């Protein structure tokens, strides 16, 4: 199953930019191997914002929870990271459904 994940990182006042970037570096070091392995189908940084968008291939909703709770940025800044999760599927399969409904 494919999921769209939208991460919005809020920097607490008590956290310096350098410390935030160190946490984000650990996050990137955990995420990039998953991209190479194909678990993460796409990973993008939103320009000008502290936001990241990812397409993740997971076997279940429980696996999504497990993955998210083990991310370095969530472990270190969970209270300051908002994550939107949306189940998605290929537009081609939606088109097939539309054809059935339309006829």
Tell me about this structure.
- This protein is α+β, with helices and mostly antiparallel strands.
- It has one domain (2-102): Alpha-Beta Plaits (2-Layer Sandwich).
- The chain is 47% helix and 29% strand.
- It has helices spanning 17-37, 61-69, 72-77, 91-102; strands at 2-9, 40-46, 51-57, 81-88.
- A four-stranded antiparallel beta sheet has the order 2-3-1-4.
- β2 and β3 (51-57) form a beta hairpin.
- The model has no long low-confidence stretch (mean pLDDT 94).
Notable traits:
47% helix; Alpha-Beta Plaits; Dimeric_a/b-barrel; 103 residues; elongated; four-stranded antiparallel β-sheet; alpha+beta
Task: Note the topology.
Layout: E1 2-9, H1 17-37, E2 40-46, E3 51-57, H2 61-69, H3 72-77, E4 81-88, H4 91-102
Antiparallel strand pairs: 1-3, 1-4, 2-3
Task: Tell me which CATH architecture applies here.
Answer: 2-Layer Sandwich
The largest sheet has its strands arranged as 2-3-1-4
Compute the number of helices: 4
The CATH homologous superfamily corresponds to Dimeric alpha+beta barrel
């Amino acid at each position: 199953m494919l999921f769209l994940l939208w991460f919005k990182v809020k920097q607490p006042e008590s956290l310096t930019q350098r410390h935030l970037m160190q946490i984000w570096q650990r996050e990137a070091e955990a995420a990039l191997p998953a991209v190479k392995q194909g678990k993460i189908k796409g990973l993008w940084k939103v320009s000008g914002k502290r936001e990241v968008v990812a397409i993740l291939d997971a076997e279940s909703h429980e696996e999504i929870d497990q993955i998210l709770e083990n991310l370095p940025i969530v472990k270190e800044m969970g209270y300051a990271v908002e994550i939107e999760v949306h189940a998605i599927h290929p537009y081609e399969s939606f088109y097939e459904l539309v054809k059935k409904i339309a006829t």
